[in-house]
Amino acid sequence: MPWARVRVLRYDGVKRETGRRLNIVKDRTFDGPIPKVVDGAKAMISEQLRDFQFLGEDGLFKEVPEYPEFSWFEGMFNAITYRNYGYSGDYIRISIFDDRMGIQSPGKLPNLVTVENMRHTRWSRNPVIARTLIEFGWVRELNEGVGRIYDEIRDLFLDPPEFTEPNNASVMLTLKNNIETRAKRQKENLRDRVSNDLYGTLSEYEREALQYVFGRGRANVAGLANHMGRSVKVARKTLKSLVDKGLLVWHGTSTNDPSQYYTLR
Asked: Which CATH class is domain 6-177?
């Protein structure tokens, strides 16, 4: 069953672009035995998600994940366990954007299950797969997974998860982060680290690049160029200018080093 696979895509931005503005920055497909698919997809998703820091009321910095791990891991598992494997022309897609993650699996919800009652109603479309995953200890088949997704999302003060059936041909779980609030706080924190006089001398490109590095912790030329929608030459010139102004630090062994990157000073 070559269509029994999981494809994970990481996009730069909040929507899919095409043609010259294609914004896919990571794209991997996982197939083979289910345990290998799960391990591979989980590792890649973990690498692509961010942790955010905030200053707690006790004066100490705390770190919170972009999404609770259980929420997206359970969503991926549900897709693998309950998808319609009779759809041979499609596969499971996990799309990661700056503001959300979408987990889409082929086929409508099974039997009596609907978007409205799925938190309380269970029906196993693929009982052999479900039973096998129970033996692995990954699924409990107690119909608690969806409810716990809602609970864990709520505990991080994120918007509730959304289950939909696009085109009545698939099931989509959408998890949203609070990137807008975090971005606003990041800008405020960034302004605290750069003097007003110096910040006022920065170009539009330099400000965007500085915010990009601040939000991600590090950046390379290709990633910034893709984010800005500009050429590699413009991105490289912008980063070098920020190094010259003492705001960024370059890391690398030579100008041709493929792993070179920039961080905040």
From this structure: alpha beta
